[in-house]
Amino acid sequence: MRSTASVLHLDLDAFFAAVEQRDKPSLRGKPVIVGGTGGRGVVSTASYEARRYGVGSAMSGREARARCPHAAFLSGRFHAYRATSRLVMEVLRDLSPLVEPLSLDEAFVDLAAADLPDLEVATVTEVGERLRARVHEVTGGLTATVGIASSKFLAKVASELDKPDGMTVVPPGTELDLLRPMNVHVIPGVGPATAERLRRAGIHTIAELELVTQDELVRLLGQAQGHGLWQLARAQDSRPVVAEREAKSVSVEGTYDSDITDRRLMEGLLTRQAREVGTRLRKSGLSGRTVTIKVRLHDFTTLSRSSTLSSPTDDGGSIGRIARSLLGDLDTTGGVRLLGVGVSGLADWVQEDLFGETADEEEVEVVLPEPPRRTWPPGADVVHDDLGPGWVWGSGAGVVTVRFETAETPPGPVRSFRADDPALHRFEPPSDD
């Protein structure tokens, strides 16, 4: 723990849903739920208007519809979320060279590395307010909640206290006063199972946890978790803000218009991606030891599997063989909407003949199925030859209904078309790869 409140945690409020409301004027101020568009789907993000009805992340789409049937259920537009996240991270890096992204919508910032006159509470408070205003400006109206404190743990706790669109600064010396009344759930790693163990031991608040000795916590929770909780209950957290200065992995992934169910096609796609990863590694003079595949299922569940080699490789064929074997461990019968291959554990040397001599692989022809014209995901960006840009309001029975509006227009008109209307097209953003 530092002697100054110089660790900032920024969390974009209801990020995915907020981006949708920004880009779809007719949804502003209304309940919006991203993900969970089918009965087997899962809620990714709910707007604050939807949260009032008890809808939350990881809830099943069926339950979300039961709680808030009048919400707009959207399938998600990851290209828009990534683009907005990049703008925010650039703002953070303009403030300090030490920025540690945690996800698309949150990051730690080390204010001690920023060019500030001092780290007094008044100074960092003003910095936080300016930062929130700048994020609002560059994102076209999105809000962020900020916490500033003497450690990562306290900064993240503080950023949860004044949501949405707020800020909390924890003055040095007041950390325990803030923590003691709180439930143990606020401590990272205290999930339902750990909380139940603590409850059975009569521990509900951090103040009660603080009274337990380290030996008792170790006996109750094990060495690593017991020691960690003992420290955090006393606001002891010395973890630094770590900026990523170099590539830690090389990866390629693709999202597909229609769910893929053909196993041979999945293997062909992974093979093609593995070859591209190998090419990128060789161009960068790198190799890697850990091969990972990423698979997003039809219901937005995202799975990953990894295998670590004894020596690094940059060979696309070798990477592809491992990727296909990892796919064999997954149940993809319901369909796959995203596949990806990555290599990490990077090095600047290669182990020759890692797999010895191998026969030439059978070439798998990769021909993606044409997207079914009758499946238009709700919320997807579209363009009409005459009416311009819009988004899918809904579809079914061979008809697709589009609302024509953008972030820069007022709420727009709604029109319906045949699902196979040649004048209506899905908008395909430029690839990030």
From TrEMBL:
It is found in: Cytoplasm. It catalyses: DNA(n) + a 2'-deoxyribonucleoside 5'-triphosphate = DNA(n+1) + diphosphate. PROSITE patterns: PIPLC_Y_DOMAIN (PS50008), UMUC (PS50173). Residues 374-410 form the PI-PLC Y-box domain. One of its GO terms (cellular component) is cytosol. Residues 417-433 have a biased composition (Basic and acidic residues). Keywords: Cytoplasm, DNA damage, DNA repair, DNA replication, DNA-binding, DNA-directed DNA polymerase, Magnesium, Metal-binding, Mutator protein, Nucleotidyltransferase, Transferase. The keyword Magnesium applies. It is an enzyme of class 2 (transferase). Residues 406-433 are annotated as: Disordered. One of its GO terms (molecular function) is magnesium ion binding. Residues 7-191 form the UmuC domain. Its main location: cytoplasm. Belongs to the DNA polymerase type-Y family. Poorly processive, error-prone DNA polymerase involved in untargeted mutagenesis. Copies undamaged DNA at stalled replication forks, which arise in vivo from mismatched or misaligned primer ends. These misaligned primers can be extended by PolIV. Exhibits no 3'-5' exonuclease (proofreading) activity. May be involved in translesional synthesis, in conjunction with the beta clamp from PolIII. This is DNA polymerase IV.
